Structure formats: structure tokens, C-alpha cells
Task: inverse folding
């Protein structure tokens, strides 16, 4: 089947992307690793000993950089619908965290420890229908925020990928209800034409 012009353009862009090439050289599973590295450099979301929940973790680009930083005294619990190859120091739970059984499994894996940081790089499977995709994306980040509210300790942090569009402004207001400080980040590794930004919530009100 012939590739559409759009998918060919994406493929060409992806292959020539400096962050894709850099990830291959640095041994990272995803170019997304650089987004979190930059955000954490600015916002100090996690450090040695932190307990972190990574939602939408596959292929593991974020967990891979968090685990060595939090170290043996920290904990990383990652989850995704898709499979993910194992990472030392990361507990991975495959399944749809919108289902109660999977959600409970994530909570149980925390072994009673309160969470310092919830990170989410989740995105829905895109249908190509702009509004449908936007609603699906907003649904996921709303659920990520719900989980953060349930597991974060007071003063904890939250970082989620959000697509600007319908529901975005309301979502930002919702995040502000729960955090003392809310920042919008557009890391260098985000493609300029992408509508994605990262919302960072600092100082969970509990």
C-alpha cells in the first residue's frame, strides 16, 4: 500500500529528527527522554529517593531516565496498555489504568508509599479526526490528574502531556485547583508544529 503524503512526511521528519538520532546514540528508547530531562532540570520533579508513577510509559523513555536518578531508595511504578521491555528498578504493570483492576495493581505496587511525582506522556491512538482525538487526549489527562490527586503526598509534583485545543483552558484551571504553582513547558525536543505542551504542577495541596 502506498504511503500517504502525510505519513511519508512524518517518516522523513522522524528519520531526520536530531533527537531521534541522539536517542539512538545515547541509548534512550525514545526521543521523549529529552523532554523529561529538560523539564526536570528546570522544575526538579524528582530526585534521589523519590517515588514516581509513570503513566503511558511504553516504550520506557521516561522510566529509563527516572530510575537511575531515584536510585535504590526510590521507586518507579510504570504502566501502559502496550508492552514494555524491563528496566532495572522499574515495576511495570501492563493494562488500561482506566480499569479498576489495573489501577489497584498500580496502587498495590507502591507498597503503601506516598508518591512524590506522577508523570504522564500518554496520548490516545489517533483517528485523524481532530476533535475526536482532542477529546480522547483530554480524557486521558483528566484521569492522570485524578490518579495524581489520589496518590500524591502533600507538596508532590505532576507533569502531563496536554494537547492545546478544546478543553485545554478548563484543564489548566482544574490543575491549578490542586497545585500551588502550575507551569506550561514546551521542551526543545517537542516538535515546533505539535500542539503538545507539558503542564507541570508543583506543591500538591493534598
Result:
Amino acid at each position: 500500500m502506498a504511503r500517504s503524503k502525510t505519513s511519508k512526511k512524518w517518516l522523513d521528519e522522524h528519520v531526520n529528527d536530531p533527537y531521534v538520532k541522539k536517542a539512538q546514540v545515547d541509548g534512550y528508547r525514545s526521543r521523549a527522554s529529552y523532554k523529561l530531562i529538560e523539564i526536570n532540570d528546570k522544575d526538579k520533579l524528582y530526585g534521589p529517593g523519590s517515588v514516581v508513577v509513570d503513566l503511558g510509559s511504553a516504550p520506557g523513555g521516561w522510566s529509563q531516565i527516572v530510575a537511575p536518578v531515584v536510585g535504590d531508595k526510590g521507586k518507579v511504578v510504570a504502566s501502559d496498555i502496550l508492552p514494555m521491555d524491563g528496566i532495572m528498578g522499574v515495576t511495570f504493570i501492563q493494562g488500561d489504568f482506566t480499569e479498576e483492576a489495573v489501577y489497584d495493581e498500580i496502587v498495590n505496587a507502591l507498597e503503601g508509599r506516598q508518591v512524590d511525582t506522577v508523570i504522564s506522556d500518554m496520548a490516545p491512538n489517533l483517528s485523524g479526526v481532530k476533535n475526536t482525538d482532542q477529546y480522547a487526549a483530554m480524557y486521558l489527562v483528566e484521569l492522570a490528574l485524578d490518579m495524581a490527586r489520589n496518590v500524591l503526598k502533600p507538596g508532590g509534583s505532576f507533569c502531563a502531556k496536554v494537547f492545546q485545543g478544546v478543553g485545554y483552558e478548563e484543564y489548566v484551571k482544574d490543575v491549578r485547583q490542586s497545585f500551588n504553582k502550575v507551569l506550561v513547558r514546551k521542551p526543545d525536543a517537542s516538535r515546533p508544529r505539535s500542539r503538545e505542551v507539558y503542564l507541570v504542577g508543583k506543591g500538591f495541596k493534598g
Summary: The chain has a mean pLDDT of 90. The first helix runs from residue 5 to 16.
